[in-house]
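Progress report, Aim 2. The chain analyzed during this reporting quarter is listed below.
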Amino acid sequence: MSPSRAATPAGSPASAATPTTSSAGSAPAVSSALSTTDLRIEAAAGPIVVGVDLVVPRGRTLGVVGESGSGKSMIAKAVTGLLPAGVRASGRMTLGDQEIALDGGEQSFGPVRGSRVVLLLQDPFTSLSPVHRCGSQILAAARIPARSSRAARRALAAERLAEVGLPADVADRYPFELSGGMRQRVAIAAALAAEPEVLLADEPTTALDTTTQAGILELLHSVQTSRQMGLVLITHDLELARSTCDELLVLYAGQVLESGPAAQVLATPGHPYTRALHAANPPLDVRLAHLPAVEGSVPRPATVLDRCPFAARCPHVHDECTAERPVLLPITPERSSACVLGAEYLAIDAAPDQ
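Predicted C-alpha cells for the chain:
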C-alpha cells in the first residue's frame, strides 16, 4: 500500500487536512455554522466514534448516512451535549466563532443548546411533553421574558406556528390531540423558536407517510433558506439525502468512509461501502431478480481500529485492507475516500451486485 494512505492518528496534520472538513464546506465564501475536528466518542466498552471531522456551512445541508450502529445519532447527541451517562466526547467543536468544550457538560452546552444549536428527534413524543399545551412548549423553547404580556406570548406562539404551516389554535391543544405530521411540525416550531444557527435533524420524517414527509422536508428547507441556518440531516434514505443534502458523510463503525457533494457521492460512489448501500436501494423503476444486500453487520469500532472497518464485508478486500487503517484522502478535488484503492475505485464498474 502506498505510504500516503497509511493510517495516521486522527487530528494529526495529515488527518486534519482530509476533505471531510474542506468538502463539507466546499463553498469558501460561506461561513461555518458548526464544525468538529477529531471528534471522538467513547464509553466504558470502547470507542463509538473515531476522529470525525465535519463542517456545516450556514444555509447549507450536510447529510450523514450509514447503517444503524454506525454512530450517526451519537454524533448529533455529542454536539448538542446530550450524550447518555457514561459516554464522553473529545476533540474540538466550534459553533460560529465560539469554541465549545465537548467534555464541558452543562457548563458548555447549557447556554447554547436550544438557542444556537438544536436536536430534532425522529419521534416528536420524545421531545414534546404530553401534559403541556403546544403553545407553552413553543414559548418555553423561545425563552420569552417571563414578564411578557399574555397577548405578546400568544402572538409569538401564533407566529411560530404559522411559520410551520399550523393555525394559531394549535397552541391551545395537547400533542396527543394532533396527527403525527402536526406533532412533528409543532416539534419543529419549538426547535426553531429561538432561531438557532444549527439544526440537527435525526431521521425527522421516518415515522411519517410520504406526503407528510415531503411537506416536512419542504418546510425545513424553507426555514433554513430564510434564516441561513445550517442543517445536519441524519438519514437511512439515500434518495432523500440525494435530493436534500448539499454535502454527504458516509459513516461506518464510527468512521467516515467517504465525503463530498451528495449528488456526486451517490452517482459514482468512491468507496465499496457507499456502493453497497447504493446497490441495496435501487430506483423504483428498476426490476431486479433479487435485492442486493450487504452480508454481515456493522462491527464494534474497537475491533477494527487497525484495519479498514468494512474489510470483512467488502467484495474488493485484499491484504492491504487488513494491514492498517486507511485514512480519508482526496480522490477528486471535491471528494475524499478512506479506501486503499483511492481514485482507482471510481473506475470500477458500478454493477448492482458489487
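The longest helix spans residues 210-227. DSSP finds twelve helices and twelve strands in the chain. These observations will guide the mutagenesis work planned for the next reporting period.
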